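Input record (Table S2, row 325):
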Amino acid sequence: MKIIVSGGAGFIGSHLVDELISKGMDVHILDNLVTGQIEYVNPQAHMYVVDICSEEARKIIMEVRPDAVFHLAAQADVGKSVQYPKHDADINIIGTINILEACHKAKVKKFIFASTSAVYGNLNKEILSEDEVTIPASYYGLSKLTAESYIRLFYELYRQPYTILRYANVYGPRQKPKGEGGVVSVFFDRIKNGGNINVHGDGKQTRDFIYVKDIISANLAALTYGSQETIQISTSQKTSINEILSFITDIHGIKVVRDFSAPREGDIKHSCLCNKKAQHHLKWKPIYSIEDGLKETYAFHIASESNTNKEKIYNKSIIRNRVDN
Ligand code: NAD
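Output record (nicotinamide-adenine-dinucleotide complex):
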């Protein structure tokens, strides 16, 4: 099976590429490396350093003619979206339309989209289902929601098959220490550097933390199931920031010092997504407990620390920076 993964050099995309290749698939990556890292790109993948908004990206899709496209490339930083709404819309809306048009022309059999719980905004409900009202509180949530609408209309007008996956808060190896989604990685980074951990608010706020390998298995399930559906990929479990820190303390074996600061403006108290639809439509459920996911993530951070000063070996020949003529 021939697959294109946009954003295949990023945190989630690089894990997806590894899994697809381990299953014997022919994988092509579209990524401009703005946040992605070349050292995480599987050397067996065909790598194209290209912007998803470009004509070149369209031409590659037309040329490769993949069976399926996983569209993960995005401006995925909520704060940046609020600062630079046009830039966010250019990538998340216009970039998605660009890829969608090419998929339609290349007769791609499945378009699988990485969406987010940010489409709901600050509903402050105990647990959300896919039928909930969507009132994004950031341009990131709005641009992802708009992209979702384009994907549905591409099916209505052109019969371009799709599955939209709305991820909860993803964590795991290779995640950069930034933003709300990356809170686990921020904490491990602080521990590695021997600093105190800063907690915004009282630490009782909860999130639905899902391990990246569970996100990958859901994406694979979407190759077969969930056509024309919008599905939440989550654990349906609430974990507070204080609980995360207790788990981390246990794994680390040394007490972690917490500093509490004022809650961030606009921060939501609780966010949890119901995964019943995913279980039913994708025949999928998460298998990682938060403890197991955190242990694997900790092992990655410790290993990467010991590798920090070692030479990184990249196979630059895997980059085919294609210029079409
Ligand atoms: P990431 O920043 O690690 O990955 C995004 C990838 O897209 C990077 O490799 C980046 O270089 C690439 N990219 C960005 N703009 C591009 C462009 N214009 N052209 C080509 N490539 C471009 O982020 P991630 O956490 O791996 O997120 C992957 C997807 O999952 C995103 O669509 C994000 O919105 C979604 N998502 C992530 C989370 C989370 O908790 N991490 C939660 C919900 C949804």
